[in-house]
Amino acid sequence: MKDLTARTTAAGSTARRRRVLGLAGLAATGLMALPGASQAAEEVVRSGHPTRRDIAILRFLAAAELVETDLWQQYAELAVGNPAYREALEAIDDDLPVYTVDITEDELSHAEFINAFLRSVGAEPVNLDPFRTIEPPRVQGLRPTRRLTNLTALTIDTSYYTRYQSMRNPDFGATFPQIATIRDQPAIPTADGLSDRILAGIARVAAFHFPSIEVAGTSLYDQFVPFVANRDVLRIVSSIYATEAIHYAIFRDSLTGVSAFRSGDGKLIVPDLTEGGHGSAHVMPKRCDFLDRRFPTCSVIRPSSQEKAGAQAVARGLTASNLFKGQSPAFFRALSSLARAADGGAA
């Protein structure tokens, strides 16, 4: 791990980070006027503590960060301890193994911080340890520890790729095509001794999964900002939100190293994104409609509505990706309960 971490200081890595970190400035800095906002604000003024909705938001975010930490830990363990998998990732982008280690540390810090804050205000932190029931593949580098998430049969929504290249916004009803077909595919090795070609396909699945997780997290945090009443909670949500946007930008940039691949069963079809193919060189989000079409278009995070990016929408999306394949009914009930509360009890 030390060797991988040290490589983050390389000139090429530094240049790449400087190109894509522009999204850091997207962090929100204030509240929008919404129905019920004044009542929530009065509750904060009276008590000096976060509102019930604030706590519910933080509890769902803590759960989301624990889920992220769990999946990133698997990627990082393999990037460090499985040379064949590491080489397959490096064939796409030399820095991908390093990024998996860095982001694991980021997501763990988010989960630990949010839970610590919850305890500090007398709220119950989130503990998902009882749901660590999924057995990971027995492969080199991956600890034989039960997990929350399953990375062996992912179905990935890759529409985020075309969404940010478009001047349309899903909050206004826009839909976007898939840039790749990824159905029921492993993003990590399922056995030792796999061929180079199989590992190449697995690495491509992982490369598309990386930004899909972070783009969902970016929209999730963004849409929560207008509903937060307490200033400290707002700082937590908006500050962590900025790092999620940075993560997405870095992994979206890494896709420029993906070359064409097709599996025999047609469940994995990836186009050539190298040398600007399929618009891969354009990584910055284009302008789109925002808030109201009467205003000029604006380059923003999208979606940012509760309907498209709220806690329940994110929970549904993660479930549809097969990330929780093999989880218990109790886990899905707990996730659903946290999501409903964070969305203010909305259906």
Question: Could you describe the 3D structure shown?
Answer:
The chain is mainly α and 347 residues long. The protein has one domain (2-342). The protein is built from 12 helices and 3 strands, in the order H-H-H-H-H-H-H-E-H-H-E-E-H-H-H. It has helices at residues 2-6, 11-20, 37-47, 52-81, 83-90, 96-120, 160-163, 196-224, 231-254, 306-309, 311-320, 329-342, and strands spanning 181-182, 261-262, 268-270. Strands 1-3-2 form a 3-stranded antiparallel beta sheet, with helices on one face. InterPro entries: TAT_signal. This is Ferritin-like domain-containing protein. Residues 1-40 form the signal peptide. Keywords: Signal.
Q: Give the termini distance in whole angstroms.
A: 44 Å
Q: Strand order within the widest sheet? A: 1-3-2
Q: Let me know the largest β-sheet.
A: 3 strands, antiparallel
Number of domains: 1
Oligomer: single chain
Estimated radius of gyration = 20 Å
Give the low-pLDDT segments. 5-46
Roughly how much helix do the residues carry, as a percent range?
Answer: 40-55%
Helix/strand-derived class?
A: mainly alpha
Q: Which outline best applies?
A: globular
Per DSSP E runs of 2 or more residues, the count of β-strands stands at 3
Series of H and E elements: HHHHHHHEHHEEHHH
Strand residue percentage: under 5%
Q: Compute the number of helices.
A: 12
**What is the mean predicted local confidence, pLDDT?**
88
Keywords: Signal
Organism: Benzoatithermus flavus
Protein name: Ferritin-like domain-containing protein
InterPro entries: TAT_signal
